[in-house]
Design a protein that fits this description.
There is one protein chain. The chain has one domain. Strands 1-2 form a two-stranded antiparallel ribbon. Helices cover 71% and strands 5% of the residues. It contains 4 helices and 2 strands; from the N terminus they run ααααββ. The protein is elongated and about 55 Å long. The chain is mainly alpha-helical and 115 residues long.
Amino acid sequence: MAALLGVPDLLITLFVTAILVGFAAFITGQALASTWRPMWQMMPYGLMLGCADRFLVWGLFDHVDGLSVSGYLIDTAYLIVVGLAAYRLTLARRMVTQYPWLYERTGPFGWREKR
């Protein structure tokens, strides 16, 4: 019954993609922003993290769909979004804390010049 509902697949996806590799994507986004790298560099790192994610799903859980192209594209898109969100969060925090006389926070992802 659980196999029909896809519960093992969902648990594997949540554990590997959302938690393990998702954390790696978050840390990657933070590292890029902390070292003032451009945002586009998250793309190649996200593609590599997507490969690592699919390999872990296939290798650890002997999952037949671990090497599927659609799974790779979906998981990689998720990882890139997580990395870009972490990048923007870190950059906003960094701009406001490093230049407090110039910028003020407008939300978790943004800042503006002080008036």
